Batch of 3 targets.
Target 1
Amino acid sequence: MSKTAAVQSTGTGTVQPTGKKPMGQRIKEFFIDFRRQWELQSMIIPGVIFMFIFCYIPIYGLTIAFKNYTVIDTLDSAPWVGFDNFKIILSDKYFWDSVVNTLGISFLKLAIGFVIPIILAIMIYEVGMGRFKKFVQTISYLPHFLSWIVLGGMLITWFSTSGLFNEILLSLGLISQPQNILLDPSKYWWIATLSDIWKEAGWGTILYLAIMAKIDPTYYEAAKIDGASRLRQIWNITLPNMKMIISLNLILTVSGLLGSNLDQTLVLMNSQNREKAEVINSYVYRMGMTQGDFSYATAVGLGVSIISVILLVTANKVTSKLNDNQSVL
């Protein structure tokens, strides 16, 4: 290809190259840039080493999903069984019960918990009083920094027969006698969803508030001159400028539909609500760590990871179509 064919007109009398640089030239430029910025580049070396040791080397352990591995075996000495562990998964009733629970809780969190941080961020942003805004932000962030051990203990106390919720319901005449709400399996999905929203909604507003802080104020001033109401300004200015970060959070949320909160489940699950509380992560934990069936637990985890990657790619494709073919990943 000639140099003339490798350029195109920009409409202003100038030309720009359209072809990619040769691989050798790109490699040479990479090492030149690395040498020029070696102080900064060397700062990532510990992170790269950490990822290699704890993220890439353990991938070899996934081979036990295709083996009959026991604690007396090594990764190499365990006998191969092919896809037998995956065949057992397909006929395991308890696994599919955990899938139903995981999807039920995850879809509730997606339907409710995804929207609430956006609404809360807009409400905080619209507050004019600086001290009150900081107070609301602090209160909403606080539950995120408490572990599920602490929050779970609080919920167990509040939901007990002599706890806060029963006292409130009795005083309002909504119930005639107290009951332990956490022992009722039919209410667990809502408890898991609402408690997770309570813990993470405030923390989820940080990215949205950062994006809104960068919006040019002249947009709002022009909208006011045109007579736009505050709600119209939010709809036509605030939300469109948040479109990319909303899409990114949606992609990450959809890709994690099969990964429910293990800490929350282990704290709130009991023998009475297990049928509705057991999720895939807790099922894998129970099969692997409690019952010692490491091969089966690894097979379940591997299958879930593959489906999560498929969900991630699919969600990215869908959101890119909605964003004029602009991918956020």
Target 2
Amino acid sequence: MSHPEQILQRIIELEVEHRDLDVVIETLIKDPCHDELQLRRLKKRKLQLKDHITLLRMQLTPDVPA
């Protein structure tokens, strides 16, 4: 597998985890007795995933001279 293919595979894995966190967060929010600390941690992890996905996508974009 070439480097861009590895990056794409990792992006897919992270996007799946990101969507899974969406479901978990929504489910937790619906529970009136949810753990606020857990909810904050899940949201923070979701943001970290989004940032990581963005960085990986930037690696796939070729540099264009100014």
Target 3
Amino acid sequence: MDFNVKKLVKDAGAALSRVVQLTEETLGTSEKTELDAHFEHLAERANMTKTWTEKILKNMEAVLTPNPGNRIEDFFYEKIDKKKPNRLSNLEYVGIDMIEAGNEFGPGIAYGSSLMKVGQCQQKLGQIERDFIGTAANCYIQPLRKFLDGEMKTISKEMAILETKRLDLDACKNRVRKARSMLGQQSDSGVSPEVLLDQAERELRVAQSEFDRQAEITKLLLEGISSSQAGHLRCLHEFVEAQTRHYAQCHATMQELERELAGLTGGTYHSANQESSAEQTANGLERARVVCDYDAKDSNELTLMQDEVTKFEI
């Protein structure tokens, strides 16, 4: 293996110079080149975008795939570029158990047949949920992950290069200042201060040119964040549309289940959320459950307690 000794020595010297420069800046004994306010604003916005995108992505993945073990498994499948396992959802597992229980109890009785109907509904809801998760992953999660793994990584890399160029530039500025301070004095190295100053100024011009070029490249990348956010906004709208369809399908499925259960029991199905329930008694009176407490205002009214069952004529 061939080694370029001169290059290794030069790189080592540059690295040492950067460490010295950074140390002096930390101690406050050396000046630091500051970027313009517009650039700093762009950099701050990029960091904020990266931070919040990471948080949103993490929370979205947790919502769509609550099981952390499954999330880790999916991550490895993505890394080895293999198709994710087609898992059943929790609702589908519940549905399978309900259907099996209904068959065991007997489809000929109300409870058995109702269990089977509800189980089939849970399976359908589970499939709707899996379809939504797939759609949400494609329209929202994947674009966010692609942004972080692509554009933001590139920006972070170029920002690191810019910081290196900035340290080199400031080190050159320090050498120029030192060389100027030596004018008119005898040099220990035997090289005249004028020659040392001329060399330091040439290095400074090169460092300034490289710094300016890197700053312009980084600035263009930072300005691209606006376009990325516009793309993320479109993805967000698509996610909301998918979520709206998902809940509409779930609502329609549950309404259908209520009608089917009512048909099995031969009457109207009453949910626990209805304000009151009434049923016909043998003597022709109606019976109703009180929704909330009520204090009678006069002798023609009744004082009632929540959940009290009372009879009345209609």
